[in-house]
Amino acid sequence: MGNQEFGLETTAMERIAQEIKTVCDMGVEVCLVIGGGNIFRGIAGVAAGLERSSADHMGMLATVINALGVQSVLEANGTPTRVLSAIPMQTVCEPYIRRRAMRHMEKGRVVIFAAGTGNPFFTTDTAAALRAAEMNCDALFKGTQVDGVYSADPKTHPDAERYASLTYRDVLTKDLKVMDASAISLSRENGIPILVFSIQTPGAFAEVISGNGKSTIITEMAEI
After folding, report:
1. So what's the pLDDT on residue 223?
2. Any idea what DSSP says for residue 5?
């Protein structure tokens, strides 16, 4: 969305694509789950009076638009990609098939998962945790507006505490709003660490991948 109120800003997409390309050039296999809040938020649709399932499906379709946009920018930068959608729409992308996705990754392609889980009542956070488990990912990285997990929104609470590390249980018991409970629980069950970092900070993705960047890591046991 960049500095716009809604939609896609080319400059923002190009910056994010460069972040991804840098990590791919490091030899890391990358797959992406992209949200659609810059176009439509299902929960906002419900608040406006839409039926929940319809609103959620509208949100999933918004993620397909974003996925195709990111694919276009990545490939313009020389990074091969494939978009796989949980809601089949063969005229614009491939349907999600786990083995096909894994094969694309083995061939060095960035796989972009669109349409969430394909089911209403689940967020893209849950979709990310699900795909991370299915793809046997070593870690789940969540790019947000801030450089980690805070005790409260640092934009409205300047005295909010920033956590360097947390356990899955901490996130659930403290009701921290970093990801929804189902995503945290799914990551915990599959032993997938979650690293929360700022997608707004240039170079942050590669730095966090290298173990040097500023982030919050969520695991079974908090780091000392």
Report:
1. 61
2. S
- The single residue listed with the structure tokens 């005229």 is 91
Determine, yes or no, domain membership for 127.
no
Same-domain pairing of 69 and 158? no
Question: How far is Cα 110 from Cα 16, in angstroms, rounded to an integer?
Answer: 13
| 117 and 142 within one domain | no
Between CA 24 and CA 84 the distance in angstroms is 19
Tokens encoding 223: 């780091």
38 pLDDT band (50/70/90 cuts)?
Answer: very high
Q: How far apart are CA 54 and CA 98, in angstroms?
A: 26
Structural domain count, the chain: 2
Check whether residue 62 and residue 31 sit in a common domain.
yes
Q: Give residue 166's domain range.
A: 138-224
> Residue 50 carries which DSSP code?
-
CA 162 to chain CA centroid, nearest Å: 21
CA–CA dist 215, 196 (Å, integer): 5
Q: What type of residue is 61? A: L
Q: Quick check: pTM over 0.85?
A: yes
Q: Residue 28 is which amino acid?
A: V
**CA trace torsion 205, 207, 212, 217 (10° rounding):** 10
**Can you name the residues that pair with 114 across neighbouring β-strands?**
85
